[in-house]
Fold each of these.
Amino acid sequence: MLNTIYRLTAPRTIEPVVVSQDSTGKVIVRPTYLSICNADQRYYQGTRSKEVLDKKLPMALIHEGIGRVVSDNTGAFQPGDIVVMLPNAPTEQDEFIAENYLRSSRFCGSGFDGFMQESMILPPERAVLLPQDVNCEVAAFTELVSVATHAISRFDIIAHGRRERIGVWGDGNMGYIVSLLLHTRYPDAKIVVFGRNESKLHDFTFADETHLVDDVSGVELVDHAFECAGGEGSVAAIEQIIDRINPEGTVSLLGVSENNVPINTRMVLEKGLRLFGSSRSGREDFEATVQLYHEHPEVLDYLAALVCSVNEARQISDITAAFEADIRKPMGKTVIRWNM
Ligand SMILES: NC(=O)C1=CN([C@@H]2O[C@H](COP(=O)(O)OP(=O)(O)OC[C@H]3O[C@@H](n4cnc5c(N)ncnc54)[C@H](OP(=O)(O)O)[C@@H]3O)[C@@H](O)[C@H]2O)C=CC1
Ligand SMILES: O=C(CO)[C@H](O)[C@H](O)COP(=O)(O)O
Ligand SMILES: [Zn+2]
């Protein structure tokens, strides 16, 4: 079948291309609601290195999104079903390495075309059925929620059992979602959020404590920590985490940084800390996230507070307008109602 793909060909330049794609044994999904990730912005604005841009562009952006099934000759879905699309496509299985860490996996919007397409032609295992009455504007960023689900599931295996105070550094989207999911999963733990913006911290209504990072004297140490700042903010966040965590704590690193981050390894050694990184997610994380939506519908209500704007896209200028609006946003997620 013929499909139109909207590719970033150079920073801030999106162009359509019509390609012929084989849909045999695949599910055809019309993207309906997409959401912009910081990773998309790094390509859109051209803040990645020239080598990376030269290697990955032209490429359709966006790896957060949902859609409606048009047809499925595999029988897994019914036409009209609302599904979340999975950006990670593994090409092999490994007994020990999860699909999102296999170097052979293909990730939409990072080296391979993302969801900015007229139709997504997916193997049935790259889509998961959503509750059919789900708030689509919120479900659009289920991928980001699945990344938090993934990191917390790994934390659960790695961290020692005292989980009385869990610190989250970062008052943006990732910090909000990680804190919310930690609160839901460990209702007896105190969730302590550290951020840079009083206005954003006000939205963390489910957290037990919120603190501005430059006013932490007297704040009790945490047993474990999640770093959700990213960018240049990672440096100060990791430094403060190492300072404000109890011995033998576990530090979950989630923020992406363009530059290397210096780490106070002396104190990592002295405190016996465990640092581990998490990136992306796999099918089981999406399934667990959808299960969470079913079992804890209040999570979707809390996530709705993150929707900053919903932007209709009917033509390419609407897409670029959404990316530009995302750059200027005060907080939250920029959602695109996809009508291309
Ligand atoms: N591991 C993964 O698979 C994924 C990683 N990410 C990455 O996670 C990071 C966060 O994403 P997202 O939440 O969407 O981005 P946001 O920009 O929404 O949030 C980052 C927040 O951290 C705050 N911050 C900066 N420095 C510190 C600090 N020292 N301590 C505490 N908070 C600080 C920022 O404040 P201010 O704005 O004032 O600087 C901002 O509010 C990004 O690097 C993103 O690329 C995203 C998705 C998946
Ligand atoms: O956002 C993410 C997952 O949701 C990751 O940060 C993203 O996949 C990193 O990819 P890239 O190397 O292209 O920045
Ligand atoms: Zn992302």
Amino acid sequence: MHAFKLHRLPLADQLADWAVDALIDEADLSPKPALVDRRGNGAHSDLHLGLMHASALSLWPAFKQMAEAAIDLGEIALPLREALGRIGREGEHAMLATTQGVNTHRGAIWALGLLVAAAALDAQSRSASALTLRAARLALLNDRHAPQPLSHGAQVAQRYGARGAREEAQLGFPAVLQYGLPQLKKSRRQHHGEQNARLDALLAIMTQLADTCVLYRAGPEGLHAMHQGAQAVLDAGGSASLAGRRRLNELDQQLLALNASPGGAADLLAACLFIDRIESCDGAF
Ligand SMILES: CC(C)(COP(=O)(O)OP(=O)(O)OC[C@H]1O[C@@H](n2cnc3c(N)ncnc32)[C@H](O)[C@@H]1O)[C@@H](O)C(=O)NCCC(=O)NCCS
Ligand SMILES: Nc1ncnc2c1ncn2[C@@H]1O[C@H](COP(=O)(O)OP(=O)(O)OP(=O)(O)O)[C@@H](O)[C@H]1O
């Protein structure tokens, strides 16, 4: 055996690494409209890039434990769903302890947690559609121990009848499968550059998502501005074109004026990057 043979990471460690990488890549991606990025804190007075990084790293143990639970329990059923719920809530505590009470990644723990578990359940079956289907089947199970707080998402669901993070997962992440990933691949095929392709994927998600962060902060007017503005950037040629960049700057200004931060879309971009990483890795993990 070669003395310098590289060790493959255990599956759970590998998946936790990729989930954290996806969160850091999402946070670093710039210029994102009204979100925390390398330029600043967007529409968030209580967030900054360092906090997003620290928060992402604090979630590594939770993602690893979610993968381990999926490997140990091995099937999509209530014991795994409830283990994920418990680990997810512990992850939220770790996040809040790191950020001193600021919600940096609540939606991301939910989406990426389900996807990490879905990937760990069957390391051979790695297509986006297979992963999101397993994640959806997990999300459809009812965690009997989940608290029912009147979250911002629950409040706008009551007020506007909007579908939020829970429903997006239960439907198999249509925003990722039908908008984010196809746009990511399309912009890559057009050689727009990786950062522009990722921005375009975020914008594609923003064209149609019922983002409860935006609805809570800026109502239907804010959501409409996000949908229209993101579509206008893509129609103008996307982030790689001069006309698209001008539209992106206008969208940034408009969302900032409305205090409308698309946090749900940002979480789903991270989900998109995680799935893309898994799909594109050769052979076993
Ligand atoms: C389902 C969750 C997201 C709660 O959703 P709810 O809408 O009630 O909460 P909240 O207003 O805090 O929003 C959560 C976040 O989701 C993101 N989000 C907003 N809109 C959307 C959307 N349409 N699609 C996807 N994500 C969205 C945003 O980042 C937002 O901050 C989740 O926190 C939860 O129930 N956790 C319990 C622990 C658990 O079961 N964990 C399992 C880990 S796999
Ligand atoms: N780069 C990012 N910048 C800002 N938010 C992000 C980013 N990436 C993900 N998010 C998501 O956005 C959410 C933060 O949104 P928001 O601040 O509206 O939530 P909140 O704390 O529930 O509400 P509020 O700040 O209005 O009281 C987080 O749950 C996080 O998952």
Amino acid sequence: MLEVSKLSIRFKRFDRRLRSVQTEIIHNLQLSIASGEILAVVGSSGSGKSLLAHAILGILPGNAEVAGDIYFKGEALTPDRQRQLRGQEMALIPQSVQYLDPLMRVGEQVRQSVRQGDPAELQRKAFYKYNLAGMVAKWFPFQLSGGMARKILISTATVSGARLLIADEPTPGLDGSAMTETLSRFRQLAEEGCAVMLITHDIEAALTVADRIAVLYAGTVVEIALRSDFTGAGALLRHPYTKALWQALPGQQFAALPGSQPLPDNLPRGCLFAPRCSLATSECAEALPEIRTVRNGEVRCLHAT
Ligand SMILES: Nc1ncnc2c1ncn2[C@@H]1O[C@H](COP(=O)(O)OP(=O)(O)OP(=O)(O)O)[C@@H](O)[C@H]1O
Ligand code: NI
């Protein structure tokens, strides 16, 4: 359904001497999502998750320069096609609740996104699932709590009938039952043949529903693993960063990885993870390792086996 190939995103800006400088945020990123599949995209803050989502939908800011290819249903996604498909075949649950239209009643926002079926009925069902009282439909976004606004954003995208759903951190502010409801709705959509991208910091939540997990680090995919690879001490995981994330979870060894992700304007040469990696050798500093297939997954590390 979706294929992203060699995607790079740069931003142009002017420095203090008004010279134009470019910062590359996303480097040579590739991933794919099949119909019926949930792909989780995990990575720490600033790793480029939202920019990836915005590049797919064609809503990057004007100073972004994009290279690479994105295919939807086998056809290249041009800006024109993105405009046509957005809100139709492709829907976004945005990271920020600011994306709600402040001047439109929230029930209307949900109903307007329905393309197939009875809008009033689908809106009522969505509200019922989320324990939102009927009268809330008449409210404006400023009257909602953060959790309610989040539920409206999720409802708007999930009633749309889109074939590709991109959920950018959909669950903050939701209580346990609303979170379970949301994740099981994604599973249901996948079973109906949709492709779902679930962007999240929360690896544990991702592992409850995702089929595969793509791990982002400093703007590149370091590993795409199967859900079943996250087990035991992490011996089935391919990249040292993924192993470190897994081992840092409560219930595992809970050993945090020292250091931090490099900033986009100060990236190391070669492998972006090498400065924090216990396996790093001088070869790692030569060039960004190519992504390669290892045991049904993908990894960008010279030392992975
Ligand atoms: N319009 C922009 N101009 C310049 N740099 C930008 C712009 N938008 C984002 N960035 C930079 O791109 C990087 C990735 O941002 P992005 O929002 O994709 O991260 P993220 O992984 O979604 O983080 P979070 O988990 O905090 O949402 C950040 O370093 C950010 O500063
Ligand atoms: Ni983000």
